[in-house]
Amino acid sequence: MNIRQVQLLRMLYPVNTSVFSGQVAEFFGVSKRTISNDVKNINGYLKPYGASIVRDGNQELSLYVSDNDQFNKFIEEVLYAEERIPVEREDRVHFLLRKFLLNHSYHKLEDVAEELYVSRSTVQNDIKDVKVILNQFGLELHARPNYGLIISGNEQDIRNAISELLFERYGRTVMNPYHQEWLIESHKMEKIYNSVLSVLEKFRVSISDIALNNLAIHIAIAYHRIKEKKVIEGTFGDKLDLSKELEYKMAQEILLDIESYLEVKFPAIEIQYVAMHLMGTRLAVEKSLSTEDEIGELVMKIISEADARLNLGVLSDKELFIAIMLHLKPAINRFKFNMNIRNPMLEAIKENYPLAFDASVIASTVIKEELGVIINEDEMGYIALHFGAAIERKKMITKPLNFLIVCASGMGSAQLLLYKLKRKFGHRINIVGTVDYYRLQETKLDEIDHILTTIPLSPDLIIPWTMISDIFGDKDYDVVERLIINRGDFSFRKYLIENLIYLNLKLDSPESVISFLSQELNKTGLVLEDITESVLHREKVAPTSFGHLVAMPHPVEPMSHKTFLTVATLKEPIDWYGKQVQFVILLNVAQNLDGSLEPLYKHLIELIDDYERVKQCIEAKSKTELIRLICKV
Which of 10, 198, 227, 448 is buried most deeply by CB count within 10 Å? Predict the structure, then answer.
């Protein structure tokens, strides 16, 4: 199997995961036929191990396992084995990155070409990509005549690259140490993990599971580099003395416990570096939190800015303040020490909680202004989780909507409908009562938020109304559920302007798309000033490509008179900072926002999640058709 096929299998593992074949093709940038051939090839490998990839009528792929014992052998022996010879360019580039990062010696192009069964010129072309990737970490490939190429750069940058590039590729779980065999033997990884756990328990210190994994991975990388006689330079050690900190003592005990087992001596500078990791991950204690200290003031400013710009309604949420405070106390140490952490939930957070992620982007600008440090997307993702929780809490304490039922089938049908609604939704709605159509004009509607009716009502009625059937089936349930979520009167259509919808644009980069749409907006007078620079800055902070061929760019700050969308489909998919995009929704938020953005974002999430509907939007032949597809519930 090639590495693409291995990655496809990892998408479907564990067995309760499924994915559309079209999504897989888009993800890898290949045709559906290629994926179909990959599935046939994979099934050939899986057959002796009691498993297969199955495809349903909707072209959805899933993994079926008939023999768990045999399949577990496949997981350990094949799925996470790293002896495959890479065939495709992307796989060769990663092979070369791994070779240069993990083997600190010279490598001749001729030897590498022979190892990969390709020509010297092919390797030379692959090396160009390797250099671009390494340059992002401040690293270079140094050439020496008659010797070959060797990686050069700061040791901390090399370790960051190993963590980011290699663990990103192969997965970061330490819970199954066999998955890290490419870096360290499984029994040694297990020893590191257990030593860290033991010391944490001894000192009664709590860190998250992700932080625990990251720390164990760091020690494993340090062990590998020390074996190569490469240690962290002492520059930061000259400026900092952590020897009196609790974390330093913990680091000493962890490394002392594993030194004899790993048969390696960790220098003092490595102890200090592990202590810094602990300082950057240790959970703070709630009783030490205060709005009056420096970090407390920073957190209040973060929440105030996000609440003002996005109208979240979370300004008085004490739990949000405490959660961000608890996160920022160790995070500030990470910022100071220039330490990177991975957030394995990042893509899911960006895709499922875009409003909360936008709040975290605002938080990042405040942190930059106040502390002079730049936080990455991984850190933003963790902050977004706290904002997301606050948004959900707000929904829980929001007063339920008052519904009135209008039924033309008589009191018996009305009462049955009332009890069905109460049983389905409980305390989430407040049903004020039922009324016959002819008595509706006599009924006081001052306290009514929405009317549910089995017959059409007058379009002039000041209270919004929605038709449902007398028997109240599944479709009616979905309609009422949406009303509750959207607070009764949400209409997505009002955000769409037909003159700001563009079909099949022939543009080839995010910059050209953003520039075109911004220029079109300038002609309308709907924006206060040109938004191009602000939108591009937002993309630089964190790209808004969410997968499923969709990007949702927007300015960093509200820059329009009202909230609306500018929509574009592209003739061909383009690379949008690492993801393929063919459907662009430019979100323009009103400077003086009236009402919550949550219903709008929720509808957009549902659209983005529906890959088949996205494809239909891209293929739409008219603006009317596209509007219908976008507004579809």
Answer: 448
